[in-house]
Every structure is written in structure tokens, then in C-alpha cells.
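thought: fold this chain, then report.
action: predict
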Amino acid sequence: MTELDLSKNQFSGPLPFQMGYLSALHSLNLSNNHLTGPIPNSFQKLENIESLDLSNNYLSGEIPSQLVKLHTLSVFRAAYNNLSGIIPYKDQFCTFNKSSFEGNPGLSGVLIEKNCWSMHETSQTYHDSSHNSNGDQEDTSKAIDNDVIFYSFIAASFAIGFWGVIAVLAFNKNGRIKFFMAADYFLYACMDV
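observation:
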């Protein structure tokens, strides 16, 4: 057996860790069920898996970092669950689309362009917020708050760095001499090319 499609069956409960021992599988589709709990670490043993679809369930916890060892994996979908943590960004995980992870407010990482420091603001899970009539307005206000915080942090960092360099140049004669010597050396090196 190389393909197993158990989607849309209303299965509930945790993912059986024994599924990780089906090493001959090339495709496993468990989408659109009511599965809960974490993604088992035993899934790293699905060494021939090419497609793994876990979307539209109630899975929680982190995406196991061991899944990056599945070098044959070309399709991975974990959208619309309650997953959290940082998405592994290595090997074939770098090739997956943003849509593979959407609908998991606790996830962060390069693939979904969400910074790790903003994860504490996502206290509600996707499934809880989908029943909220004001969900769109709350999501918009959180996005605006995140942008304001992010750009305020960037501006403050720039100001501290800029005035820190100016203070060293103004009040530290030794630092000022070293800075201008390094600048002169850099300019001469560029001109001698």
C-alpha cells in the first residue's frame, strides 16, 4: 500500500503514532477530520512519503523538527489546525507555500512572515475565533498593533544606534581617532581598486 486517503471521515482523537511506521507510504491524507493532539514524532519514519495532508483538523503543538529529514516530502499541508511554534525552515520545508500553514494563529516563521515575538498575542485558536462574529475586526486591529510595535522598535533601535555612535565620536577621543582611521583605510582601499 503506497497511498492512504482517510480524509473527510470525521475521525476524532489523537493521531495514532503507529502511522509513522507505515514506511512504504508515498501519500497520506488525513485532512478534514476531527483529529486532536500533536503530530507524532514517529512521522519522521515515513521515509518514502511524498505527500502528507493534515489540514482542517484540531491538531495542536509544534510541527516536529524531525520532519525536515523526510527528503522525499514534496507536499505538506497543515493548514487550519491549532498548531503553534516555529515552522521548521530547512531542506524541503523551505519550498512549501504559505497556504500550507495558514489558519494556525500560533505558528510563526519565515514561511508565514510572522515574527516569533508576536505569538503571545494569539491567545485564541483558529477554531475558537471562527465562531466569533467580530473575528475580522479583531484580526485587523491585532495586525495594526503588530505593525505599530514593529516600526516603533525599528525607529528606537536606529535612534539608539545612531546617537550611540555620535556619543562615542564626541566624547571618546581614542574612539574618534580609531573610527576616522578605519574610515580613511576603507576609502583608500576602495580607491586603489
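thought: worth noting. The helical segments are 126-129, 135-171, 173-191.
final: C-alpha cells above.
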